Amino acid sequence: MRLPLSGRGLVVAAVVAGVLVVPLVTAAPASATTYPTWQDVQRAKGNEQAKAAEVNRVQTALQQVQAVAAAKSAAAISASEAADQADADLAAATQTATSLQAQADSASATADRAQQRAGQLAANLYRDGATDQMSTRIATTKDPGELLYQLGALDQLSSTWAGVMDDASVAAKTASSLHEQATRAEDERADLASAAETKAAAAKSAEDAADAAVEDTQQHSDELYAQLASLRDTTASEQRGYELGVQVAAQKAEQQRRREEAAARQRAQQAAAAAAANPVPGTSGSSSGSTSGGSGTNYPSTGGVVVDPAGAQAYARSAIGAYGWGSDQMGCLVSLWTQESGWRANALNVSSGAYGIPQALPADKMAVAGADWRTNAATQINWGLAYIHDAYGSPCAAWNHEMSVNPHWY
Predict the structure, then answer these.
(1) 351-406 pLDDT tens trace
(2) Residue 349 phi/psi, 5° resolution?
(3) Domain 20-234, classified CATH 1.10.287, yes or no
(4) How far is CA 43 from CA 38, 48, 62, 63, 129, in A?
(5) Is the pLDDT of residue 20 over 80?
(6) DSSP-derived secondary structure for 208-256
(7) Residues 214, 372: contact at Cβ < 8 Å?
(8) pTM of the predicted model, to two decimals?
(9) What keywords is this UniProt entry annotated with (predicted)?
């Protein structure tokens, strides 16, 4: 899965679609964030110090609004995964309840047949098939041979009847036990059905909240990027690319810092263990990477996600040139993200939480590429390309690293 990587400072504008700077009237904030106004921007442009301060203010507002939508989108993914798991549990419980009920019905039929046969044999013990009672014929027969024959028949019928009665008793007990199990299974199925319904409603609510936050964030971020472009005399498109690279690079630096701290802790633990076992000091160890996103991957039915691997690859093919990569790099990128996610925008690693086509870890790192990272393959790809650019320089270098470690990661 993806070690959350980041893109380098300057990213070519073509990577992320944008618009030219168009000063607009700022709408009333929809959240606690205080957004800079165009009047603030215009006043700051006349003074370099004020301009720098305003750039920082705009960047802070941008990060704050991204964070709000990112949190709600991450919650929507978790809720969707929980709802899918509840559906899977319900399906398994339904299958179990149905199977047990079928077995119980079959056992009941077997018990009924055994009881019917026992009744028939009991009648044969009373009658020999004619109109005379068998006991009367045994008592009145004068022929010793006939007497022995009648006694033998009676003994055989008695033994058979006893065996059939035993079978009937076992079948009845089995049927009773299976019916009890079927009843418990149906109760469990009903409980799981209720839970699945509750979680489905929660998932829908979380998705609605995420969609609303994404829409609000996109409206504000469009204006904030335009304000940055005005302050820096560039375009909104260039600012999107630049800010993506800067923030992904910061993510990469933070990730590296944490890995180095983890490696240092591991070395210290190994040194302490070695010192306890042997007075001669010695240490070893290195930081470990994440495992491949292709292992233990689910595809939650997150609302709004369009799963289109071919379309995602087409978009990536159109975007890699912005980094100076040739068509030879596309093959490596296809191999890399095929292994990681199958190029599916809703790919979720159930053990780590890595998400999306590039398997960002944590998933909401992709928020720096756009508020719609949960559902938009292009936004995921923009983040992933920036990550590869900053961490490895090219898709082939990332793919070579992926293949050089086991378990695989990049």
Answers:
(1) 888 999 999 999 999 999 998 999 999 999 999 999 999 999 999 999 999 999 88
(2) -80, 115
(3) yes
(4) 9, 11, 20, 22, 116
(5) no
(6) HHHHHHHHHHHHHHHHHHHHHHHHHTS-HHHHHHHHHHHHHHHHHHHHH
(7) yes
(8) 0.58
(9) Coiled coil, Signal
